[in-house]
Amino acid sequence: MHVLVTGGGGYIGLELCRQLLERGDSVRVVDRFFFGDGPLRALAGRSDGRLTHVAGDVRELDLQWLDGIDAVSHLAGLSNDPTAEYNPTANWKMNAIATERLAEACRKRGIERFVFGSSASLYDGIGPGMFDELTEVQPRGAYSISKKYGEDALLRLSGSGFAPTILRQGTVYGWSARMRFDLVVNTFLKDAVTAGKLYLHGGGWQWRPLVDVSDVGRAHISCLTAPLDAVGGEIFNVMQENYQVRQLAMLVAGSLSLHGRRVELQEAPLPKLVRDYRMSNLKMTQRLGFTPAVTVLESIDVMLAKLPLDDVGWLANPRWYNIAWMSVLEEVHAGQRDFASIY
Ligand SMILES: NC(=O)c1ccc[n+]([C@@H]2O[C@H](COP(=O)([O-])OP(=O)(O)OC[C@H]3O[C@@H](n4cnc5c(N)ncnc54)[C@H](O)[C@@H]3O)[C@@H](O)[C@H]2O)c1
Question: Which residue range is the domain that position 335 belongs to?
Answer without folding.
Answer: 184-208+242-278+295-342
